[in-house]
Amino acid sequence: MEYKLSPSDLTFLYDGCKHCFVLKLKHGIFQPSIPIPAVFTVISEIQKNYYSEMRTEKFCPDLPPGIVTYGEKRVKSGPVKLEGCKSTCYISGRFDIVASLDDGSYAVIDFKTGNPADQKTKMYSRQLHAYSLALENPAEGAFELKPVSKLGLLYFSPDSCELISQTRQALQGNLDWIEIPRDDESFNSFLQEVVQLLDGPLPPSDPDNCNWCAFIEKTEKPENKTQGTKTSTEPAIQGPSCPQCSGPMRLRTGKFGEFWSCLKFPDCKGTRNK
After folding, report:
1. Which of 3, 68, 70, 163 is paired with 60 by a 20 to 30 Å CA distance?
2. Inter-residue contact 110 to 121 (CB < 8 Å)
3. Quick count: other Cβ atoms within 10 Å of Cβ 179?
């Protein structure tokens, strides 16, 4: 198989719940989406527009001299083959901005709003390494930039506001540059871990640490109790694997009784006898 990996899934979903991660990337079963609060999206968009074509010396003296030349472009890598993995993967996502440095290399920059001391900062390293891999090893016809010499986060931490007029208010705060050291070896090892997880069996649900797994568990138990049966309280995805696509299955009732049917039906018509 060839798995499509998004930088955001590698950053958040992988650490959040391995069960939900595999369901999404291998079986196409998504968690219900929770939109990012609109204010963060607005702040990010304003920053991308404001820093476009700005010299790095003006807003980030810790960066080598250069100019912001690219904003919010989609990237896609070619197939990534990893040692010890029977499957391959590729990166597909969209970066915030890239600066063209005067030495001929590039800096990939991601905007964040919040506390730069947050523990999530280390997780964002995966996101930036994914962008750099896709930029330097693009799929045929995809956007390409190389070499990428700098990776980092530009953190905006609001701490005050100013009333400019009766109808205008300015939000102010610190702007911090957090450089992410380039470590391709560690990132490749991480991708190897991800693909091996996807090639393996579906991890068990984790209701103690995942809200969606907990929701499934809690909503199934009352149903089983009201039916007065000894039906298992485990989610249907704990059943056998589909013989056609290896995805999870659930019990259905047909003309000749109960049988296992692929969750992807009607796209996949794999079945098993109960």
Report:
1. 163
2. no
3. 13
What integer pLDDT is reported at residue 266 of this predicted model? 66
Q: Which two tokens stand for residue 81?
A: 């083959």
What pLDDT was estimated at residue 273?
Answer: 77
Run of H or E residues at 92: strand 88-94
Nearest to 191 by CA among 248, 120, 137, 112: 137
Q: What are phi and psi for residue 162, nearest 5 degrees?
A: -135, 130
Structure tokens at 188: 């490749």
DSSP character string of 176-245 = EEEE----HHHHHHHHHHHHHHHHSPPPPP-TTT-HHHHHHHHHHHHHHHHHTS----S-GGGSPBPTTT
**pLDDT at 18 (0 to 100):** 96
Helix ranges restricted to H, 101-145: 120-136
Q: Which amino acid is at 190?
A: F
* Assigned CATH topology for domain 2-199: Lambda Exonuclease; Chain A (3.90.320)
Read off the tokens for 2: 């060839």
34 touches 26 (CB < 8 A): no
Please answer whether residues 67 and 53 qualify as being in contact, where contact means their C-beta atoms are separated by less than 8 angstroms: yes
- State residue 58's pLDDT score: 96
Residue ranges of domains in the chain = 2-199, 239-274
**Amino acid at residue number 101:** L
Q: Give the up-direction half-sphere exposure of residue 160: CA atoms within 13 A in the CB hemisphere.
A: 6
- The two three-digit tokens of residue 14, written as one number: 């992988």
The per-residue pLDDT for 228 is: 47
Smallest CA-to-CA distance from 158 within 38, 43, 42, 37 is with 43
Residue labelled with tokens 């250069």: 66
Residue 163's pLDDT is 95
